Amino acid sequence: MIAQGDRRTVFSIMFILEESGEMARRVVVAGATGLIGRHLCAYLHERGNEVIALVRNVEKAKRQILTATAYVHWQPSEHSAWAESLDGADALVNLAGASIFGKRWDAAYKNEIRDSRVVSTRVLFSALIAARRKPAVFINGSAIGYYGPRDATPLDEQSPPGNDFLAQVGVAWEQEALEAEELGIRTVLLRTGIVLDHDDGALPKMMLPFQLLSGGPILPGNQWLSWIHIADEIGLIALALDDERVTGPLNATAPEPQTNRDFMATLGRVMGRPSWLPTPGFGLHLLLGEVADLLVQGQRVLPRKAQSYDYQFRYPTAEAALRDLLVH
Fold first, then answer.
1. Against a cut of 0.85, is the pTM above it?
2. Per-residue model confidence as pLDDT tens digits over 41-60
3. What domains sit in the chain, N to C, each tagged with a CATH number?
4. Is residue 264 a contact partner of residue 216, using CB atoms and an 8 Å limit?
């Protein structure tokens, strides 16, 4: 059963169901209540898979996810009874992590951002060690923050990491996940860009100024924005689950990133609103603090590996993605 009012989830799922092949039968999803996790659980359910959701709050998760087969309480800092759910599973998908934009960054929240990713992955790995029948594939969520802020240089899966805070988190996060390869488990590092969804994530926040007739680019405007439609995010997870060729890093971004100025102009055009009022970068720093660097600086990330596996993006351009999410 799909959550009421989430019709776009159904549309996102159906084209993937039509185009993908046989999938793992029993999938454990950590971070199941997040934006990507909810869509993934719905997709797996429609495919007839058994979905085991690892969640912090079981009762809350039951209200948020109507498509899981079972809800298992887990505390990422602890290795306890939840680990048994991995024994005999066909796949493990880890999407856990505190929101980057959840709070203004201070030392404590930076630690939370790091530990919610690195420690949770470490604990999942320890559970994989203990499993008698281990999953065939482990997909660990990562992010294009791994590459650090860059100029217009195209970045693919072979590009080196950056050296800022999020890049350091990404490197440590992926190192923990890659330990699973020593257990003979095919391991995929899903480096996700900005996920576009009508109801959650970055897009509703981007839309608000346009709804108030004050939308426009974030200065300087020439910084690159690497994004992906939620349907293609789920499609790439399906590719990683199904295709044994997929290992290591996999960029989950659309093949046509845009500069911030061009993306905001496209958003205004699709919404039928002007894109004329720029937001100064120093103003964002005053409002948000250090996290504003993610909006003022950019990355031009390309999905080279997905294309080499002949993945066909449903929404390769921002125009197509935004019209699907905002017009239909």
1. yes
2. 999 999 999 999 999 999 99
3. 7-196+227-254+300-316 (3.40.50.720)
4. yes
